[in-house]
Amino acid sequence: MTGVSRRELGLGLGAAALGSTLGGMAPAQTQVDGTRAAAGDLTFPPGFLWGCATASYQIEGAAKEDGRGPTVWDVFSHTPGRVANGATGDVACDSYHRYPEDIALLKALGVKAYRFSIAWSRIFPEGRGKPNQKGVDYYNRLVDGLLEAGIAPHVTMFHWDLPAALPGGWQNRDTAYAFGDYAAAMAGRLSDRVKDFMTVNELVCFTDLGYLVGGKAPGLKLSQKEANQVRHHGVLAHGLGVQAIRANAKAGTQVGLAENPSIYVPAIETPEHIEAAKKAVRDSNAMFLTAIMEGRYLESYLTAQGADAPKVQEGDMKLIGAPLDFLSINVYTGKMVRADPSSPQGYAILPTPREAPRMPSKWLYLTPEVIYWGLRSISELWRPKALYISENGCSADDKVSADGKVYDTDRVMYLRNYMTHLQRAAREELPIKGYFVWSLMDNFEWEDGYTKLFGIHHVDFKTQKRTPKLSADWYRELVRTNRLV
Ligand code: PNW
Q1: Is there a smaller number of Cβ atoms within 10 Å at the N or the C end of the chain?
Q2: Residues 435, 393: contact at Cβ < 8 Å?
Q3: pLDDT for res 34
Q4: SS3 track for 18-85
């Protein structure tokens, strides 16, 4: 089909797919290797980018090595009562020393991309000032090692490990400028080899959860007004980061962010429910993604916040709304929405029943359709040039078997189901370019410490031995064949 995509013609499911995948009309054919194709042969587009993701504080360890400065997560995890079992990221997966092993794991999986984050405080131990060359050297070694293995580094500049020395943290507008300077420094040093940068990871987690709810570092419970200002500094940091990366990186560098927007699934797939879910996405993300994609705060957000609305300086919204080369979303869970003409906003967000199926993390309700609806709502609302799933995965009830292997059938089920909806998005020609599993290996799961593990590789935290779980074997096969069977 030329020019117009199948989606635009309203033929999301092509006739062939309808006949085979849904109708079950076409006879399945047994392939020479014994698998059955045709019906439900869920192939991904050629060149679809498969990867794995991690983050600095969750895997690196070496908390005091080579001049790394303390972060808000060091302080938080060392405060009694904050993290399950008093766990910290002091050692974690020791990837600061064992990164060659991690690269070998990626290579064995066959993935062509690795998403990791830079620890700001390894580069600027106090958040700003003179760069620490030993910290820079570490990321140079990591990037070079990945490239040698044929794996593209996708770099997140900030995944929550804020240098503790920055006064006031994200309450202070200056922190956003310090972030811009740090992003400039790293883009300048890495963009000869790194093509894809994400500014920040998951705004709600380092703003609201850190400063309003208090479950994440720095663990504050401020007023809504103060929290709204923190949110504004978060999106401003992203905008300053985009500007800094563009000004300091080589031409052709791709800039975006990794955001976890609230995503809604239409309860029933009819035009009115689909529209309702889309509107819910735009409204619910007004303080973060909607502001970034539209360069303004929605009137409904400002009105609802009233006197608590953030103080915005001239030029802020233009920075925040700077055009991006791609948008990445972290997708785990979502809620259903139905159209509700009787409500002022025109929809109702349906509560998730408490006993609905979920994974061990208490917030991780199974909603595989969020991948498709997240990508579709965002595409229709804002037409991003390219989309990635920068994280998707789950904690699972992992047990090491007698043969030393983790048979995580629950995680395989989770991934297989979510990816069916990823394939639908690709099949309908949404601009989805790649997918990163969270996570390459078991790691420090924030306030849950090491009690909830998301890895497709098991890590024995006593010996640091990494072992592929069943889910890693499953993912390797998906990467190899580029299709779900
Ligand atoms: C993400 N929720 O966090 C983070 O980017 C990762 O660092 C983290 O390890 C991973 O997901 C698993 O938790 C989230 O409550 C934390 O919906 C909480 C939520 C979603 C994502």
Answers
A1: N
A2: no
A3: 57
A4: HHHHHCCCCCCEECCCCCEECCCCEECCCCCEEEEECCHHHHCCCCCHHHCCCEHHHHHHCCCCCCHH
pLDDT tens per residue across span 436-456: 999 999 999 999 999 999 999
Query: Is domain 15-481 annotated with CATH 2.40.30.20?
Result: no
Helix, strand or coil for residue 455? coil
Domain borders along the chain are 15-481
Give the span between the Cα atoms of 22 and 19, in whole angstroms.
6
Distance (Å, whole) CA 134 – CA 138? 6
Residue 40 backbone zone (phi > 0: left; psi -120 to 50: alpha; other: beta): left
358, 286 Cβ separation under 8 angstroms: no
What is the spatial distance between Cα 119 and Cα 60, in angstroms, rounded to a whole number?
Answer: 9
Closest by Cα among 339, 205, 223, 325 to 271: 339
Q: Is 116 in the pocket of ligand 1 (CB under 6 A)?
A: no
CA gap 35, 28 in Å, rounded: 10
User: Is the C-beta atom of 55 inside 6 A of ligand 1?
Assistant: yes
- State the Rg of the chain over Cα: 22
Q: Ligand 1 atom 7: the closest Cα is on which residue?
A: 55
Distance, CA of 420 to CA of 17 (rounded, Å) = 13
Atom of ligand 1 nearest to the CA of 395: 12
What DSSP element (H or E) covers 37? strand 36-37
pTM of the model as a whole: 0.93
